[in-house]
Amino acid sequence: MGFQLTADGFAKTIDALKEHYLIYAPVLKKGTGRFTDTDIVRYDFVNEASEIELERKSDYAFKEFLTPLSETLLFFTEDQVKAADIPDKPVLIFLRSCDLHAVRRQDDMYLNNGWTPDWFFKRRRDLVKFVLIGCKKSYQNCFCVSMGSNRSEDGYVFSVETDGDGFACDVPDTGFVPFFAAGQAADIKPSYVTKNDFEVRVPDQVPGAILKHALWDEYSSRCIGCGRCNYVCPTCTCYTMQDIFYHENGKVGERRRVAAACMVDGFTNVAGGGEYRKSQGERMRYRVLHKISDHKKRFGENMCIGCGRCDDACPEYISYSNILNKVTDAVENLGKEVQ
């Protein structure tokens, strides 16, 4: 079931939803971009429908509610431990199809990747429902079609996209139909792109010989190890733990989970001063093969969803999508050599 809404009708829908949900959506932040006097689109809690950015691609991913860059997990004293409080009100997260596919990758890593689900992630995950933002066009650096994440058939309670001066919403979850009382019933299906400007090829299998391939050497000189590609990625899940002590005796404080980045110095440091993958080329190899090989072996699908944010964010103009094609070419050539 779908609805056509005027701008005023959509505002009334958001006002009605606010009574029951916190709303977390992409927001245009004017003048706060990475360079002087540039804008950026990033996620935040919103109070008005007009704050929700539906036209521009978000520079950062939705995941900062589920996995904040820095999150206090628990507080401890000498004889007590208390889990940190989180919002107890349900949350609606507005996201595009590629990011909705990324949710499944997050679930795989935190809920299905071991003998028990990550309790701290799960309690946030249980609060969340998703709103799909329809995509009428492909954005710069997107390659979602190649990764199969351009379309979502389920997993959302309703969709929304601009339609002239108004809005079009598909509402598959009947429990949300009452929120659209200001709309006109219509047959609506979410828009999705069928072709990107850039196509990516990913090998079905990656042979071990690719680990020593010369293609990685280029990135030892080009990559500066800033980690931007990791922090904007909706499927990167690595973190480190930090204990913050309030007193010198070390018995009162808090434990934090802090986002980590495989492209940054120190990620592979071990006791005794050892460090694996010292060069940026080795780190790039790890990141790329984890996205298109390691994750697939464990969970059956590529970790990368083709949002292209890593390409958008890189200050050295390193294209991850180009790397994937280079890897595929190298794999195909290795296969020819074997023959």
Number of structurally distinct domains: 2
Beta-strand fraction estimate: 15-25%
Task: Please identify the structural class as seen in this structure.
Answer: alpha+beta
Considering DSSP H and I runs of 4 or more, what fraction of the residues is helical?
Answer: 25-40%
Q: Which shape, going by the Cα principal axes?
A: globular
The sequence of SSEs as H and E is EHEEEEEHHEHEEEHHEEHHH
Give Rg in angstroms. 22 Å
The major sheet is characterized as: 8 strands, mixed
Distance between the termini: 55 Å
Largest sheet, spatial ordering of strands: 3-2-6-7-8-9-1-10
Q: Point out poorly predicted stretches.
A: none
Q: What is the averaged pLDDT score? A: 94
Helix count, per DSSP? Answer: 9
Protein name: Sulfite reductase, subunit A
Organism: Shuttleworthella satelles DSM 14600
Enzyme class: oxidoreductase
EC number: 1.8.-.-
Description of the structure:
There is one protein chain. With 339 residues, this protein is of the alpha+beta class. It has helices spanning 7-18, 97-111, 119-125, 144-147, 218-222, 228-232, 280-299, 309-313, 320-338; strands at residues 2-5, 22-29, 40-45, 70-76, 81-83, 91-96, 128-133, 158-163, 166-170, 184-186, 239-245, 253-259. An 8-stranded mixed sheet has the order 3-2-6-7-8-9-1-10. A hairpin with a 2-residue loop joins β8 and β9. The longest helix is centred in the last third of the chain and has 20 residues, at 280-299. It starts with a strand and ends with a helix. The mean pLDDT is 94.
